[in-house]
Amino acid sequence: MAKKEVAAQIKLQIEAGKASPAPPVGPALGQHGVNIMDFVKKFNDVTKDRVGDIVPVVITVYSDRSFDFITKTPPASSLIKKALGIEKGSSDAARQKVGKLSKQQLEEIAKIKLPDLNTDDIEKAMKIVAGTAINMGVEVEEF
């Protein structure tokens, strides 16, 4: 089987199970001639068990207009917001704190993010997630 020629790679962040032909999905795929509804159905089917999470997706479009995609883990910031039950991070992270992340919560988020991080050490993954939390104005329990 000959390798297909890659025409484009599209990176989007879409809410799990809720992709639709509306922007950003429609315009991003339409300009490459991809069957938008085909992608929407497949994406929603793959992510139906993760509804409520924002799922980064990398779509590879081939020259024959076929495609495949890889879903990644939700961004650390959205996992932190979900764990703390907050709408958004602080606008002034240095002075205004919006919550506190326990060591256990930090470890759970790090375990979820591990496949997409450039480490396989849970302690290092926790430090990466802690850095994101601190930039959001979230205090992090010592670990």
TrEMBL record:
CDD domains: Ribosomal_L11. Residues 72-140 form the Large ribosomal subunit protein uL11 C-terminal domain. InterPro entries: Ribosomal_uL11 (IPR000911), Ribosomal_uL11_bac-typ (IPR006519), Ribosomal_uL11_C (IPR020783), Ribosomal_uL11_C_sf (IPR036769), Ribosomal_uL11_N (IPR020784), Ribosomal_uL11_N_sf (IPR036796). The keyword Ribonucleoprotein applies. It holds the Pfam family Ribosomal_L11. Residues 10-67 form the Large ribosomal subunit protein uL11 N-terminal domain. The keyword GTP-binding does not apply. Belongs to the universal ribosomal protein uL11 family. Forms part of the ribosomal stalk which helps the ribosome interact with GTP-bound translation factors. Part of the ribosomal stalk of the 50S ribosomal subunit. Interacts with L10 and the large rRNA to form the base of the stalk. L10 forms an elongated spine to which L12 dimers bind in a sequential fashion forming a multimeric L10(L12)X complex. Part of the ribosomal stalk of the 50S ribosomal subunit. Interacts with L10 and the large rRNA to form the base of the stalk. L10 forms an elongated spine to which 2 L12 dimers bind in a sequential fashion forming a pentameric L10(L12)2(L12)2 complex. This is Large ribosomal subunit protein uL11. The lineage of its organism: Bacteria, Pseudomonadati, Campylobacterota, Desulfurellia, Desulfurellales.
